[in-house]
Q: What sequence folds into this?
């Protein structure tokens, strides 16, 4: 059996002690397999960053197990094959971009001769070409985020963990970042990231893990998640005195003058309803299918909880 | 397993030490306080040059100027190490620079030890530059003053250990108290702690219940013991070997204890 890149079992994380104790994560379980791109989504305060910090060993689990590549999280061994982008990070304002990447690359064990050649290419890749000798105190938030991505991928790690991936990036930055991620994904790297940009999650991810108030509410492939999000709508008129066909009646028809409207989420039920309506002599005025986005699904989920 | 050609063959702990050291050096050089020190030293050197033109008339004047320069080098390097050490971890946590750093294959102990070595090295670099400058008056004096070279070597070596001690204490302080409190308490203790300790001990001995207090005070580091430069400029000879090694061990024990406590505190700390 393949060892998961990330394996979280019954993770509980508490902050504070005594009366100030606050449970941020309530016994969550999920894994990320090699080569997968998994989006970790949830509202602010849902427990995403705490989970990611537990993965990196920055906060300690109250109970449960967290491992990466089979190594307990927080150990040096577990971080050797990982590139990490923190939620919000500033980088040493007194350093130049080149010096910072030399520091991080060096800590990953990369040779200085290799870094000399790699750093300019890497800065080019994240849209900071020619900024090698610029002091970081002159960098905008978006530039810092791009630099953060560069430091995360400098050693070409097997797995990447990005907390709030597109934070601080403008639309151009987000587009550039998406290209970088597509490239990393095509190279077969495992990517686990959180983002509030759900279109990004929809586009890039194989699977989505949704967390709400410290609990996992969904863990499914994007295709599985999007399947029930397709809604078919039929607008029809019944002949005078006719009764509502059984299949159509099941979907709570809404009356609008002489017209009736039903919404169906299942494609087979939709076909059945169409054929029964035709048999009963109903006039079908309009049929349409509408896809709900992941964003709409997420908003409904948060509002209804 | 063979090291890939893209990877360095240096062991990771030594590598981390060098890289973190370089980072602190860059910080020290690019921050304002380093230039403030240089300005003070430039003023001192201007004074020396004027004295050189006017003429250093006797050995006492030369020794006074030397004492002044060395004291400045000793005090400023220690205070710089204190300030640099006290801000390292709080700055990293406040600005979240610690996250990408500790996300690399770097243990918290290595990070802490690397910071200590880097802060000590930064203090040492400043001390070395200012100490060399302190000897400038020598060039204006026709004959060498009768000062003991072995004593000077001992004083320099003990100062290095003392710099390590203040760096370790400032790092420990930064983990257990607010930065301002840490700098104020440790700064005051460094400057007047030895005198205060002696005064308290003397008063306690006079009142007849000094032994327990003396025992308690022995657990506080005495920076006054670690400054042998006054002894050097007073023309006194070197310490005997046991006394000298004892002083080195004294500094090393306080440094080791401070670092061990720092590691315990830092390892338990969620970030």
A:
């Amino acid at each position: 059996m393949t060892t998961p890149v990330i394996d979280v079992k019954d993770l509980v994380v508490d902050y504070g002690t005594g009366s100030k104790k606050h449970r941020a994560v309530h016994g969550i379980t999920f894994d990320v397999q090699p080569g997968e791109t998994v989006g970790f989504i949830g509202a602010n305060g849902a427990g995403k960053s705490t989970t990611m910090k537990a993965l990196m060993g920055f906060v300690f689990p109250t109970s449960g197990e967290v491992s990466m590549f089979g190594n307990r999280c927080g150990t040096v061994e577990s971080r050797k094959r990982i590139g990490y982008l923190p939620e919000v990070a500033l980088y040493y304002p007194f350093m130049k971009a080149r010096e910072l990447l030399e520091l991080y690359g060096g800590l990953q064990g990369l040779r200085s001769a290799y870094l000399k050649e790699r750093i300019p290419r890497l800065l080019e890749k994240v849209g900071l070409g020619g900024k090698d000798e610029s002091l970081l105190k002159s960098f905008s938030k978006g530039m810092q985020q791009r630099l953060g991505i560069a430091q995360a991928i400098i050693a070409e790690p097997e797995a990447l963990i990005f907390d709030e991936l597109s934070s601080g990036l403008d639309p151009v930055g987000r587009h550039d970042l998406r290209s970088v991620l597509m490239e990393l994904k095509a190279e077969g790297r495992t990517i686990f990231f959180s983002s509030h940009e759900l279109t990004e999650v929809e586009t890039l991810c194989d699977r989505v893990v949704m967390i709400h108030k410290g609990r996992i509410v969904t863990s499914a492939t994007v295709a599985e998640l999007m399947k029930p999000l397709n809604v078919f709508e039929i607008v029809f008129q019944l002949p005078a005195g006719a009764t509502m066909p059984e299949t159509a009646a099941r979907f709570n028809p809404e009356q609008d003058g002489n017209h009736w409207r039903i919404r169906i989420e299942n494609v087979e039920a939709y076909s059945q309803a169409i054929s029964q309506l035709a048999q009963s002599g109903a006039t079908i005025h309009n049929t349409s299918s509408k896809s709900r986005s992941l964003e709409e699904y997420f908003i409904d989920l948060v509002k209804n909880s | 397993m063979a090291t890939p050609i893209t990877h360095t063959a240096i062991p990771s702990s030594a590598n981390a030490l060098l890289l973190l050291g370089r980072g602190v050096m860059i910080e020290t050089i690019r921050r304002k306080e380093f230039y403030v020190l240089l300005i003070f030293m430039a003023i001192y050197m201007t004074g020396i040059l004027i004295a050189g033109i006017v003429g250093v008339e006797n050995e006492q004047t030369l020794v006074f100027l030397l004492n002044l320069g060395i004291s400045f080098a000793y005090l400023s390097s220690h205070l710089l190490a204190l300030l640099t050490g006290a801000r390292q971890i709080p700055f990293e946590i406040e600005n979240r620079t610690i996250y990408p750093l500790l996300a690399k294959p770097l243990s918290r102990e290595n990070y802490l030890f690397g910071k200590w070595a880097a802060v000590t090295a930064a203090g040492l670099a400043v001390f070395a530059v200012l100490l060399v400058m302190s000897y400038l008056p020598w060039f204006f004096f026709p004959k060498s003053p009768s000062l003991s070279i072995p004593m000077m070597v001992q004083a320099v070596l003990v100062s290095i250990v003392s710099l390590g001690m203040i760096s370790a204490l400032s790092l420990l302080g930064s983990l257990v108290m607010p930065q301002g409190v840490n700098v104020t308490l440790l700064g005051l203790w460094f400057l007047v702690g030895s005198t205060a300790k002696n005064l308290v001990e003397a008063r306690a001995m006079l009142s007849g219940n000094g032994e327990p207090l003396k025992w308690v005070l022995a657990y506080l580091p005495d920076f006054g013991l670690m400054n042998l430069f006054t002894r050097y400029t007073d023309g006194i000879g070197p310490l005997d070997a046991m006394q000298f090694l004892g002083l080195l061990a004294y500094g090393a024990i306080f440094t080791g204890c401070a670092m061990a406590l720092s590691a315990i505190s830092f390892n338990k700390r969620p970030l």
